[in-house]
Write a structure and sequence with these properties.
Blueprint: H1 2-15, H2 17-52, E1 60-64, E2 66-69, E3 73-79, E4 82-83, H3 84-92, E5 96-112, E6 115-124, H4 128-131, E7 136-139, H5 144-149, E8 153-156, H6 158-165, E9 174-177, E10 180-188, E11 205-209, H7 210-218, E12 222-223, E13 226-230, H8 236-251, E14 261-265, H9 266-309, H10 311-319, H11 324-361, H12 375-401, H13 405-410
Parallel strand pairs: 6-11, 8-10
Antiparallel strand pairs: 1-13, 1-14, 2-3, 4-12, 5-6, 5-9, 5-13, 7-10, 8-11, 9-10
């Protein structure tokens, strides 16, 4: 029975190939764009989120400011000075999984193998590698022993290592920072282009233990910034309130005083970008849906015309025992076959466009990445094709199944 329907479908499609070919072009275009644009949006979102979170997957920066007294203004302002104990207090909170110092040292003069470079520098604690999303290229990161002993060790960004040592490994080598000897303990893996960064790019900096930075460079016990990672990414705002409240108790400011303590949470920036991408994605999918509906309407109109032209044939089939169900199935199968074939062609063209784009774009730039066809997109595309086919064929097939044999046989 099914084989008979398939043979009949192929024969009818061949008889009306021009009509079906022209009307199916809309479905080919719609499915092709659905395939390509869904891959493009997924690739763009993945690339953009990866670029934004290079600074840290869930990092929060705290920037101390000044506390001003009401009615006095800046004349009576008192600076908020964080210290190493504040880092330990923040990390002890249940809402915080890790905290570290991130002390800005300004550009420092570094010399190695006869090369002298001016490099942006920070004093950090051992948790900074995890919070700031540093991966090891070679060697190791600064550890707790380095911090406790104020060791003269340095961790280099990938670009800094290349500027100082060329292509050779710098681990274990000696460098001087502002004339003070240091030993290189590790080099970070390359992060590449970044959309978000605090100061210079992470590839262009050097990191030393916070205690070493305080002893040799800043000459005080203050910590310029604290970075931390909330224990629950979804509850980042609650963690920030808890941290601000704790530091406010110890430094004499209220929790919501933004002039006393400013903060930046990377996930808040990601949320804003995600909403913008969602709006753009909805617009694109709406345009694709309109294209598919136009294509489905074209197939539906062709099927109505064919039903009208084959009225006598339908009446004859019913007169010799054809059921309403078989008539309905025959015409629905024809519409479904057209949409699935045209949709399949469109999907293959879309996949081809994805492959070509991947080859041309490669790893992409700071703001643009290659399209990525997600596994779930295949099932979405198949579901859309089936839906369009059923929507395009259901009404014409229902009309064909309700034709009365006596009336159809008398028609000319």
């Amino acid at each position: 029975m099914l084989l008979d329907h398939v043979v009949e479908t192929l024969r009818n499609l061949r008889a009306h190939k021009l009509r079906f070919g022209l009307t199916a072009s809309g479905i080919v275009w719609g499915i092709m764009m659905l395939t390509y644009l869904s891959a493009w949006m997924h690739g763009y979102e993945t690339h953009l989120m990866g670029q934004m979170t290079k600074i840290g997957q869930n990092v929060v920066f705290l920037f101390p400011g000044v506390i001003s007294k009401p009615g006095i203004g800046q004349r009576g302002a008192r600076p908020v000075e964080l210290d190493f104990e504040d880092v330990e207090r923040v990390e002890a909170l249940q809402t915080v999984s890790a905290a570290a110092a991130n002390h800005w040292l300004d550009p420092l003069m570094i010399r190695a193998r006869g090369r002298t470079k001016l490099v942006w520098s920070y004093g950090v604690t051992e948790k900074a590698a995890h919070i700031r999303n540093y991966e090891l290229g070679s060697g190791r990161f600064i550890n707790r022993t380095d911090v406790s002993r104020a060791a003269r060790v340095v961790f280099l960004g990938s670009r800094t290592a290349e500027r100082l040592f060329g292509g050779s490994s710098p681990v274990g080598e000696r460098v001087t920072i502002e004339g003070i000897p240091f030993r290189v303990v590790g080099v970070a893996a390359e992060k590449g282009e970044q959309i978000v960064f605090n100061g210079p790019r992470d590839d262009d900096i050097v990191l030393v233990p916070i205690s070493t930075a305080q002893r040799w460079f800043s000459k005080n016990d203050t910590v310029g910034q604290i970075i931390f990672e909330p224990a629950d990414p979804e509850a980042g705002r609650g963690a920030m309130r808890a941290v601000r409240g704790l530091l406010g108790v110890h430094h004499g400011f209220v929790e919501d005083d933004s002039s006393a303590m400013a903060n930046f949470h990377i996930l808040e920036a990601v949320e804003i970008v995600t909403l913008l991408l969602l709006g753009f994605q909805m617009f694109l999918y709406f345009a694709i849906a309109v294209t598919l509906l136009v294509g489905a309407a074209g197939v539906m109109n062709v099927m109505f015309v064919i039903v009208t032209e084959r009225t006598r044939e339908i009446g004859l089939r019913k007169a010799i025992g054809g059921s309403n169900g078989s008539i309905f199935a025959q015409f629905l199968l024809e519409a479904l076959f057209v949409t699935l074939v045209s949709g399949g062609v469109g999907a293959m063209l879309g996949v081809g466009m994805v492959w070509i784009s991947q080859a041309l774009i490669g790893e992409g730039t700071r703001f643009a990445g290659a399209p990525i066809l997600a596994p779930g997109s295949f099932f979405t595309i198949v579901g859309v094709m089936v839906f369009v086919g059923v929507a395009a064929g259901a009404l014409p097939a229902l009309r064909a199944s309700r034709i009365e044999p006596a009336i159809s046989l008398r028609s000319t």
